[in-house]
Amino acid sequence: MRVVLATESFLPDVNGVANSVARMAEHLVRSGHEPMVVAPSPPAGSRAVGDLPYPVVRVRSLPMPGYPQLRLGLPAPALNAAIRAHDPDVVHLASPFVLGAWAQASAKTLGLPSVAVYQTDVAAYARAYRVRLTERMAWRWIRTVHNAATRTLAPSTESVTALQANGVRRLHLWRRGVDDVRFHPSRRSAAIRRALAPDGQVLVGFVGRLAAEKEVDLLAGASRLPGVRVIVVGDGPAAASLRRALPDALFLGARHGSQLARIYASLDVFAHTGPYETFGQAVQEAMASGLPVVAPAAGGPLDLVTHGRTGYLVPPHEAAGFTGAIASLAADPSLRRAMGEAGRESVRGRSWSAIGDELLAHYRAVMAAPVAIPLPPLPSRA
Question: Of the N and C termini of the chain, which has fewer Cβ atoms inside 10 Å?
Fold first, then answer.
């Protein structure tokens, strides 16, 4: 198959959308298919991506209001020309909203089937950043874009429920994979633990973008617990304010690859505070690393964390639940060990290769379906 993956975010961005698109493009190449990625141009000064085994077409972009590190791809003649030149069998729309909507229009014009992958709670972003977009308007646009696709893939049961409630049709559940070789308990490092916990503290970690919707400040109470040290891995627009809110925490900045895997495995507890996750990839990586997880009882973590067995699900938006659950785990090494082992077992069979094969089956299904779904006119470029 020849596949165009049109994505709102791509490398060198560090987020779930960029990571999953890169993983699926790699799987397509390994499986003998021919992907092409279409993505917004990164901001000036971004780290180099390096050579990739598939073509990447960049379109002009502008910074997202309130979060300039994320770019919004703009419509351009190059988009339609690139899709046409690749001569795809199917168009994959990763978290479509701006660039993805224009790629969908191109697919419709060319009579191509499309798979739209829901990965970002845009309505929650509108609330968190107070942009000129109400939640109702966001859902109206999500419904328009996704109902124009041949089918929509959602990563969690709560995402499926939310999409159904807002009128999105032709829904299928498609979860995310995890590299359970890279993220493994054997990566635990005595040297890292000595550096991060010189007095033998229990290490509680957060990994992710430091942005308003992640609500990392909910860990302030946990960071003051005796014998506990909170480790924050990541970067983003909220970094400075979080350093002020969590003066007792240690901020490591963004980490990648094997170094990130060693940090995960060297923690004792993983805390994921964001209540708007459509999936929660960091949660799954922590579980693969053998960690108990404390996460909000909302969104993707509801599918990933079994309360009382692999971690704790606590009320979203409330610091007290995180503080209490972390205190319980900090006081009980045997409980941490048992939950970590159960979490590792729970991700068995979720390799990116297996998830990639599921995606190929979705591609084949839409290629066999008639493409006769009208797409409403897109808003003016002005």
Answer: C
Diameter over CA atoms, the chain: 65
Q: What is the chain's Cα-based Rg?
A: 21
Beta pairing class for 56-59 and 269-271: unpaired
Buried b or exposed e, range 158-191, using 16+ CB within 10 angstroms? bbbebbeebebeebeebbbbbbbebbbeebbeee
CB-count exposure of residue 128 (10 Å: 0-12, 13-18, 19+): middle
* Tens-digit pLDDT string for the chain (382 aa): 999 999 999 998 888 899 999 999 999 999 999 999 999 988 777 777 889 999 999 998 888 766 666 777 877 778 889 999 999 999 999 999 889 999 999 999 999 999 999 998 876 666 665 555 677 888 999 999 999 999 999 999 999 999 999 999 999 999 999 999 999 999 999 999 999 999 999 999 999 999 888 999 999 999 999 999 999 999 988 999 999 999 999 999 999 999 999 999 999 999 999 999 999 999 999 999 999 999 999 999 999 999 999 999 999 999 999 999 999 999 999 999 999 999 999 999 899 999 999 999 999 999 998 754 444 555 544 4
Render 177-188 in DSSP notation, one character per residue.
Answer: ---TTTS-GGG-
What are the structure tokens assigned to 153, written together?
A: 């893939």
Which strand ranges, in their side-by-side order, compose the sheet holding 202-207?
250-253, 228-233, 202-207, 269-271, 293-296, 311-314
Torsion angles phi and psi, residue 279, rounded to 5: -135, -70
The one-letter amino acid at 201: Q
3-state SS class at 154: strand
Model pTM greater than 0.90? no
Q: Exposed, middle or buried, 117 (CB in 10 Å: 0-12/13-18/19+)?
A: buried
Cα–Cα dist 208/69, whole Å: 14
